[in-house]
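User: structure tokens for this one?
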Amino acid sequence: MSPLPPKEYSEVLENIKSIRAKKIIFEVNKYKLPIGIENEFGVVKHPGASLAVPIKNDGKILILRQYRFAVSRRILEFPAGTLEENEDPLLAMQRELKEESGYKANKWDYLGLLLPCPGYSDEVIHLFLARDLEPLRNKPMGDDDEDIEVLEMTKNDLENRISNGNEPLDGKSISAWYRASQFLNL
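Assistant:
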């Protein structure tokens, strides 16, 4: 996988407002862009995240139906989680997979980075393929606000749900499935 192009930083001329909420910060700053334009922009500062596409040895895919308060719905998405400060993305994903699905993976492949909302957030999501899954005897406690149902799907069932639009899926999971499918030549 090719490395991302180098960053071209915008100069922060003035911090107008900052609001902290759990692990994210919303900032309104006056910036000078690399093309010389000065203007106010809002940005969500995010510590980053990891996501895994978990595939069992029988080929079934684990996916979560999870309640998300911001959209007031249960949506299909792969296990994912926000990074703690200075946390390694793979270690974070190994922890999240156990907490959210009740499985651990013995084989991990890196699928690259995803920038889900570059128009207003600096979030970077590290994508992984998790294989050779084993159910845990005792699922560790996850976050107390998580409302998750673990589902198993075939490749065809998942792709039908992506294409028919009858059930909400999040974009990061669709992108991760595309990358995993390419990696596995599915």
